[in-house]
């Protein structure tokens, strides 16, 4: 019984980094899409917030604060999506669903 | 043991004091952010506002976790960013909402230059009084009363035909018959004669009425052809004017039997007499006599001579006065 509990605990602990990383990746992709639509020009406030929250999420992930990292990453994704919507509402370049792969990403 | 407890309590108090100080700083930063937002910092200083808000949020989270050191680090970033945002927002005036000039109320012209009761805006003839039925235009006048209104009447003061744009038809000979109906437009004539002068078809001599045009009959019959009515009309007038007894003589050529020619000439003379009576001549003044072929005036050997011999003559028997 104690053995099973140990395995379950390990699994639960192991999910934390995975979910946080996934959320951070999602936020990162959303931010890349927003930037591709020139959100830094037309939605500077939202883009800046998304960048700051994403950076903070990564920082929290480094401190193994996965719950906080996931929460911040979600916030970052929300701001990135808001930036994309704002650009689209202005009639600017619509955010592409498949973000252009940058040199950084390819690396 | 007691010392350790006292040290722990001191540390706790210091930590609580530091936490309180951080919260006060966080509140100050939040106040700056609110002020900046009210000054439209989101548009004027989006980067600074975002840094301030994000770091404030991170600081508050850290304070909630009791990590005043990290909270202070975030507040170190948030406080200047908030101040910068506020400063930029103050210099960057809130974009004035364009207050559209109230559109001038549409002004409907109520002037009525011609005073006909119809505003100029609805008046098709704003300078000329007119009736509402004609949208402010006057009833079309017709000075010459020829049925052609003056606006299209090329001769508004002279009655004329509508087909000639209200002008009278031209009449060169001034005989009252328009040139278009006048068979003799340059010679005055009566309308009955299609504007042509009456042709003189007879000459009244002392003893006879000389005809310039023979009276024509149907062949071998005593029926006068219509082309002879004019000359007979003039003969009738001459008989009335002369007031003498007239002998109407009928003659033929020598074609046919003598007796029949005599009979035919008599019948033709009678026919002429009857026609003249119908024209108003007194029957008592007229005497019809048929001579047949007895008195030729030309040779019967030629066609032209026979034509001359087939004739009616009017002889004056005696003058009454």
Describe the protein's topology.
The complex is a heterodimer of chains A (107) and B (321).
Chain A: H1 2-36, H2 39-42, H3 44-62, H4 66-89, H5 103-106
Helix pairs in contact in A: 1-3, 1-4, 3-4
Chain B: H1 2-38, H2 41-44, H3 46-64, H4 68-91, E1 202-204, E2 208-211, H5 229-242, E3 244-251, H6 258-278, E4 286-292, H7 303-309, E5 311-319
Parallel strand pairs in B: 3-4
Antiparallel strand pairs in B: 1-2, 2-5, 3-5
Helix pairs in contact in B: 1-3, 1-4, 3-4, 5-6
Give an overview in words:
Chain A has 107 residues and is mostly helical. Chain A has a domain at 17-89. Chain A has helices at 2-36, 39-42, 44-62, 66-89, 103-106. In chain A, α1 (2-36) runs antiparallel to α3 and α1 (2-36) runs parallel beside α4 (66-89). Chain B is α+β, with helices and mostly antiparallel strands and 321 residues long. The termini of chain B are far apart. Chain B has 7 helices and 5 strands, in the order ααααββαβαβαβ. Chain B has a 5-stranded mixed β-sheet with strand order 1-2-5-3-4. Chain B is rod-shaped, with a radius of gyration of 64 Å. In chain B, β1 (202-204) and β2 (208-211) form a beta hairpin. In chain B, 28% of the residues are buried. In chain B, α1 (2-38) runs antiparallel to α3 (46-64), α3 (46-64) runs antiparallel to α4 (68-91) and α5 (229-242) crosses α6. Classes of the chains: A mainly alpha (107), B alpha+beta (321). Chains A and B meet through α3 of A and α3 of B.
């Amino acid at each position: 019984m104690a053995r099973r509990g140990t395995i379950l605990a390990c699994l639960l602990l192991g999910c934390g980094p995975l979910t946080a990383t996934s959320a951070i990746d999602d936020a990162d992709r959303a931010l890349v899409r927003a930037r591709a639509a020139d959100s830094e020009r037309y939605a500077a406030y939202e883009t800046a917030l998304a960048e700051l929250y994403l950076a903070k999420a990564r920082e929290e992930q480094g401190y193994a604060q996965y719950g906080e990292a996931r929460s911040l990453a979600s916030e970052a994704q929300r701001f990135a999506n808001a930036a994309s919507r704002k650009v689209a509402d202005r009639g600017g370049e619509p955010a592409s669903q498949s973000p252009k792969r940058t040199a950084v990403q390819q690396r | 043991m007691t010392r350790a407890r006292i040290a722990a309590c001191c540390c706790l108090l210091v930590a609580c004091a530091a936490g309180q100080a951080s919260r006060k700083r966080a509140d100050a930063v939040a106040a700056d952010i609110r002020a900046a937002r009210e000054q439209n910092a989101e548009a004027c200083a989006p980067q600074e506002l975002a840094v301030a808000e994000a770091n404030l949020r991170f600081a508050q989270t850290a304070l909630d976790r009791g990590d005043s050191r990290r909270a202070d680090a975030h507040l170190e970033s948030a406080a200047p960013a908030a101040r910068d945002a506020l400063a930029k927002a103050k210099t960057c005036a809130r974009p004035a909402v364009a207050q559209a000039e109230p559109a001038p109320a549409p002004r409907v012209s109520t002037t009525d230059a011609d005073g006909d009761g119809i505003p100029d805006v609805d008046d098709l003839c704003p300078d000329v009084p007119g009736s509402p039925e004609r949208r402010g235009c006057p009833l079309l006048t017709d000075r010459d009363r020829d049925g052609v209104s003056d606006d299209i009447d090329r001769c508004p003061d002279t009655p004329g035909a509508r087909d000639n744009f209200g002008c009278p038809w031209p009449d060169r000979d001034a005989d009252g018959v328009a040139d278009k109906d006048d068979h003799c437009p340059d010679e005055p004539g009566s309308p009955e004669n299609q504007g042509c002068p009456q042709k003189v078809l007879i000459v009244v001599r002392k003893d006879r009425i000389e005809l310039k045009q023979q009276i024509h009959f149907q062949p071998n019959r005593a029926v006068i052809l219509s082309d002879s009515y004019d000359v007979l009309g003039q003969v009738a007038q001459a008989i009335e004017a002369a007031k003498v007894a007239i002998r109407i003589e009928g003659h033929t050529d020598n074609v046919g039997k003598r007796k029949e020619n005599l009979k035919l000439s008599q019948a033709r003379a009678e026919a002429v007499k009857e026609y003249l009576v119908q024209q108003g001549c007194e029957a008592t003044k007229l005497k019809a006599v048929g001579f047949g072929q007895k008195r030729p005036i030309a040779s019967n050997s030629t066609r032209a001579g026979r034509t001359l011999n087939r004739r009616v003559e009017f002889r004056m028997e005696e003058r009454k006065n």
